[in-house]
């Protein structure tokens, strides 16, 4: 295998997922070979947030985000907040997420999703952590709610799925854009149009693994080692070299998440 010379950051991975339980060491070494030198492991409820923090404590190049996904909003209990706050006090935690609204699946009732989303935006603001937003079929609603929390240190829409108009609004507010495997899907001309207009320094690379693998691996489990396929597609869409895509997005993400470099 050719060892990549790129240095890229996977800003959104679910390494705690059961699909990685059997071969996480292999997944991590393939990530390093592909040039992924930082991974942010993102929680979706208290249990997975704990797992994310444990992984970050075990591997110095992995960081964690903690939070409750809109799918899991209905399962929140008073002790969830104490547990997450305690986790967030660990230095390996660099963001609060993923949080937001998912009006596509509505696994939790929309009112509950909003309540839990607002609660977490408040806590993140209090703790001074940037937030990782999950927005599925809820662009307008999400933007409306975020208006009430102007003091957040940073906002990234992970797996951005809005159109050019929504992107313009996010840009104007200083938000960032997580771009992953969906950019490589033949039918996703809308996202390629958005990426064409975005400044590279507002884009973060992400896999959202084990979900959303790039085109060559569709139907399979995604993993951080596939991230160069996203770099190549951004490079093609924007007409800049993969090295520029890697360098610019890495610098932007390291600054946003305040990643301490201890290489
Ligand atoms: Zn998500
Ligand atoms: Zn995710």
TrEMBL record:
A divalent metal cation 1 binds at residues 12, 14, 98, 208. SUPFAM superfamilies: Metallo-dependent hydrolases. A divalent metal cation 2 binds at residues 134, 158. Its EC number is 3.1.21.-. It is an enzyme of class 3 (hydrolase). One of its GO terms (cellular component) is cytosol. One of its GO terms (molecular function) is metal ion binding. It holds the Pfam family TatD_DNase. Keywords: Hydrolase, Metal-binding. The keyword Disulfide bond does not apply. The keyword Metal-binding applies. InterPro entries: DNase_TatD-rel_CS, Metal_Hydrolase, TatD-like, TatD/YcfH-like. This is Deoxyribonuclease YabD. It comes from Thermacetogenium phaeum (strain ATCC BAA-254 / DSM 26808 / PB). The lineage of its organism: Bacteria, Bacillati, Bacillota, Clostridia, Thermoanaerobacterales. The gene is yabD.
């Amino acid at each position: 295998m050719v060892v990549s010379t790129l240095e890229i950051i996977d800003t959104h991975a679910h390494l705690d997922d059961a699909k990685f339980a059997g071969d996480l060491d292999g997944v991590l070494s393939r990530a390093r070979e592909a040039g992924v030198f930082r991974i942010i492991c993102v929680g979706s409820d208290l249990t997975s947030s704990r797992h994310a923090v444990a992984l970050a404590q075990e591997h110095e190049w992995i960081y964690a985000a903690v939070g409750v996904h809109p799918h899991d909003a209905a399962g929140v209990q008073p002790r969830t907040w104490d547990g997450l706050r305690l986790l967030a006090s660990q230095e390996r935690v660099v963001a609060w997420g993923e949080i937001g609204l998912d009006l596509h699946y509505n696994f939790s009732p929309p009112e509950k999703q909003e309540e839990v989303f607002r609660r977490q935006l408040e806590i993140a603001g209090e703790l001074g952590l940037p937030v990782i937003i999950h927005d599925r079929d809820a662009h307008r609603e999400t933007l409306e709610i975020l208006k009430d929390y102007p003091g957040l240190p940073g906002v990234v829409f992970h797996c951005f799925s809005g159109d050019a108009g929504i992107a313009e609004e996010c840009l104007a507010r200083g938000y960032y854009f997580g771009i992953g495997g969906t950019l490589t899907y033949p039918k996703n001309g809308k996202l390629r149009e958005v990426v064409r207009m975005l400044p590279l320094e507002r884009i973060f690379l992400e896999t959202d693994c084990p979900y959303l693998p790039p085109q060559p691996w569709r139907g399979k489990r995604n993993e951080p080692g596939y991230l160069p396929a996203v770099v190549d597609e951004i490079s093609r869409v924007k007409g800049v070299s993969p090295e520029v895509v890697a360098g610019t997005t890495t610098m932007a993400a390291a600054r946003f998440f305040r990643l301490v470099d201890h290489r």
